[in-house]
Design brief:
- By secondary structure, the chain is mainly α.
- The protein has one domain (3-94, 102-202).
- The chain is 78% helix and 0% strand.
- The chain is built from 9 helices and no strands.
- It has helices at 3-18, 22-34, 40-58, 62-67, 69-91, 108-120, 123-136, 144-174, 179-202.
- The two termini are 33 Å apart.
- Keywords: Cell membrane, Membrane, Transmembrane, Transmembrane helix.
């Protein structure tokens, strides 16, 4: 695939993925509330989920998304329910000022499922790959090697964007020293997570 095509794809993805949406909101809220140490399964699932959408678009499998529409709807609402549950957990989380003990980590499998549900159920991501991407790249001419190049480009862009958000959220978390500050941060994170759930639920 031509370098110019990859750069155009990378630029479009940078704008689309870099703008705060439900996935980024959920990621930032998670890091501010619990820290960044156990967030990797969530990130990995987000990246794999986007790779799935890219693959569906490249190989002309958009009809699969239509054929199995019910399955994607179920995944979407499972993601909404889990994000709402996480929001409730953040809102009611106990606050300790000593900061000595790390917050209890969630099971990696649960985080992975949450990240996958958020990504596969996010209409913003689906529309980028199934509707916008074909206007950027001639998908009919993309070979298996071209798909691999697009996937690698996608991974590099998403890793850079998401890790930047994780770093910013982690830095913000370090500034929270008092119980009051932590409680406010937890409530803001809960509201953000709840907002992400509502945004996914509201979109069709």
């Amino acid at each position: 695939m031509e370098l110019s095509s990859l750069l155009i794809f990378a630029g479009a993805l940078l704008v689309a993925a870099g703008s705060p949406g439900p996935s980024i909101a959920a990621l930032v809220a998670r890091v501010v509330s619990k820290g960044f140490r156990d967030v990797f399964p969530f990130l990995l699932a987000m990246w794999i989920g986007e790779a799935i959408w890219l693959t569906l678009a490249v190989f002309g499998l958009a009809f699969v998304a239509q054929t199995f529409h019910l399955a994607f709807v179920v995944v979407k609402w499972l993601g909404v329910a889990y994000l709402a549950y996480l929001a409730w957990r953040m809102w009611t989380a106990p606050v300790k000022a000593n900061g000595g003990a790390l917050p209890r980590a969630d099971a990696p499998a649960k985080l992975f499922i949450a990240g996958m549900a958020v990504t596969l159920g996010n209409p913003k991501i689906m529309m980028f790959y199934l509707a916008l991407l074909p206007t950027i790249i001639d998908l009919a001419s993309v070979s298996l090697l071209g798909w691999a190049e697009l996937t690698l480009t996608m991974a590099l862009v998403l890793i850079a964007i998401d890790l930047a958000w994780v770093f910013a959220a982690a830095q913000a978390r370090r500034l929270l020293k008092s119980e009051r500050a932590m409680r406010v941060a937890n409530r803001i994170s809960a509201a953000t997570m709840g907002g992400a759930a509502a945004a996914i639920a509201a979109r069709s």
